[in-house]
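Can anyone check this?
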Amino acid sequence: LDKDILFYNHNNICIYKNNLLESDKESNTSKSIKEYLPQHLSDMQDMYSFEIDDVPYLIIPIEHNLSYYGSIIIKDMGQPVSDVNLLLINQTANALSVSLLSYERMDDYNLRMKQSFLQDLAVGLAGDKAQIISQAKKLDLNLEDKSALIIVQFYPEESEHNHDNHINHIRKIIKITSPQDIVFTLKDHNQLVALSFASNIKSKIFDDAVNKINKYSKDNKINLRIGVGPYPSDLTKVNVAYQEIADSIDISQKLSFDTSYVSCNEMKVFDLFYRSIDRTVADKVVTEMLAPVRTYDAEHGTELEETFATLLSYNLSTAKVADNLFIHRNTVLQRKKNIESLYVNNPFSDEERPKFNLVFLLKDLYVL
C-alpha cells in the first residue's frame, strides 16, 4: 500500500504497526485511534473513515467465518477508495488474515466441533446413547448449566438478497448478549439454534436478546419467529426438545399468531391437536362444517368464509372486522346475516360458536 498501517486484533490490542505511532503506547494518536475502533455490530462489517488532526484514516474490519478478528487502520486514506487502492487493501487484508488465521486458537476449532456435534444431536443423527455420551466427553461438553434451547426461525422472501447477512447479524446479537451461548445454523441456514446460559427465559439477558432481534427484524422487514423451550438434562433428549420447539414455531406461524416470540409451554394445547388428530379426519370435519359458506361463495363470488373466520377472531366486533377486511360495516352485517341463514342453528350463538372456533383452528393448524 505504501502507507502507514496498524492492525488491531479483536480485543483492540495493536499487534502490528509500521511507523504510524510513537513507541509510547499511551501516545495521543494511539488513544484517538482506539476511540474509533469497532464497538458495535454494524461497525464490524463495513469500512469507514475518520480524521485525527485533519489527517484522514481508513478502518477496514476483518471478518472470517462469521468471526471478527480485528481491524486494519490506514493513515492518509479516506473515502471514497479508488479501485486500485481497494485491490491493494484487499491484498493487505488477506495477507494479515492468513498470518493471523495460521495461529487460530484451538478453542475456535473446538467450538466448531461442538457446534457440529450439537447439530447432529438436534436432528437425531448423533448415534446411540453410548456414542452421544462418549462424544460429549471427548469435546468436554458440559451442558448442565444451560437452561434454555432457543430457535430463531427465518421465513425469507424469494426476493431477499441479504438473507445471510441478516442471519449473521442476529447470530452476533445472540453472542454479544450472552457470549457463552453456543449458536449454530440448521435447515439450509434458515434457522439459528442457541443453547442458552440464561438463568430463565424471563431473565434480563434473554429479554435483551429478544428485544434486539425483534427491533432488527422490524427495521429490516424480516419475517421470523423466536421459539424457546427448556433444555433437557439428558443429551439423548435434545432431539425431542428441539422438535417440540420447532413444532411450536410451525403452529404459531400456521395460526398467524401476532407475536414473534413463542414459548414451547404455552403451545402445548395446540401441539396436542397437531400431534393427536388425524389430518384426513380433520379435513373431512372442516369440509362438512364449512360446506354451506363455501358453496355460497363459489356460486355468488362472495367471501363469506373469510368474513366468518374474521368475525370469530374479533369476537363478533363489526368495526374491527370492517377495518381488517377494508369493507363497510354494513357489508359485514349483511355477510353475517347471510352466514346465519345458511345454518339451522345460528353459528354465532354462545352454544354454536365454540364449535366453529375449533373448525377454523383445525383449518389453520392443518392448512386445510
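Reply from J.R.: I decoded it. The first helix runs from residue 28 to 36.
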